[in-house]
Structure formats: structure tokens, C-alpha cells
Amino acid sequence: MTMTSTATSAAASTATRHPLDLPAATYTYLERAARSLREAITTTELPQRYAQAHVSALQATAALLAARATPTTGRPKRGRAAQKNAWVLLAEVAPELAEWAGFFAAGAGKRAAAEAGSRRAVTEREADDLVRDADRFLGLVEQALGMSRHAPFHDVLPAPWTGPGRVA
């Protein structure tokens, strides 16, 4: 089965769809996205933080695609249809998230290097920024699906201790 985008009709159908009418796969991917984001937030390893944040965004994308993309059956008329990655499909299915799709697509190479264990693949700033971006993106996907946005992680995590006895 190949996934194609019918951006206008699919986007319109999701916009009027009640969150309880979403496919079960959408909820599964959202839960996985939240779990990956939680792992990104709590790990102390920079490559792992970056990779988990990127994977969280990919899983949030999969949730949106599960809700909006239209599966097609049958074979293409001439040869094989070109396969598209999740970021390309996201831009087609949810044009309002096209900039995010481009942003995360551009980070795929760094994620691959981070997953391979490269300690020089990303800086602490890049990893932290991507965690914040993935958190924001997950909220936008939830909103696009007609759901309430989760509380951003910086609103629910305790602030770092800055008082006496802090080890820097």
C-alpha cells in the first residue's frame, strides 16, 4: 500500500474530524513521539538528546500522516511510483507545516551521525534547541489534529537548582 497525499480533501476532513474519530495509529504515534521527547529531555548524552528529539518529530509527523494521508491501492500506471520520505509527505498533506518539514528534513543527516555515536555531530546548543523545537512541533501537530496541545516541557519540569551547593 502506498501513501499519497490528497492535501485539500484530507486536510479539510481532519479539520472537521473530532479527535475521538482519529485512527488508533495516530494515538500510537503521538504516544511514541511523547516518549521520545521525554527521553530527549532526560538524557545527558548530547547525540542521544538530538537523535531522540528528531525521532520525536518524525513520530509526530507519522501521527499526522496516519490521520490525513489517503492510502491508495493498486499499481501505478507506468512503472513504480517514486517513494517519498515523511517530510515530503508532511509538506504535501499539511502545507501549514511545510517549513517545519524542511527544517526537520535538513537535520536528518545530523540525526544519523548522532545515532551512529558521533560525539562531534551536534553541539549542546543544537541538541537543546532541537528538543525545544520538537516539543513545539508536537504541540502544533496535536493542534492540527484537533486536540489540545500538551504543556511545553519547560513549563512542567522543575527549574535547575541555582542556589548554594550547586555543582556546575
Strand order of the largest sheet: 1-2
Mean pLDDT: 82
Largest sheet: 2 strands, antiparallel
Low-confidence stretches: 1-14
Q: Give the overall form.
A: globular
Number of strands: 2
- Fraction of residues in helix: 55-70%
| SSE order, one letter for each helix or strand | EHHHEHHHHH
Output the number of helix runs.
8
Query: What would CATH call the class?
Result: Mainly Alpha
Distance between the termini: 53 Å
Structural class designation:
mainly alpha
CA-based gyration radius: 18 Å
What is the percentage of strand-forming residues? under 5%
CATH topology: Four Helix Bundle (Hemerythrin (Met), subunit A)
CATH-level-2 architecture: Up-down Bundle
Number of domains: 1
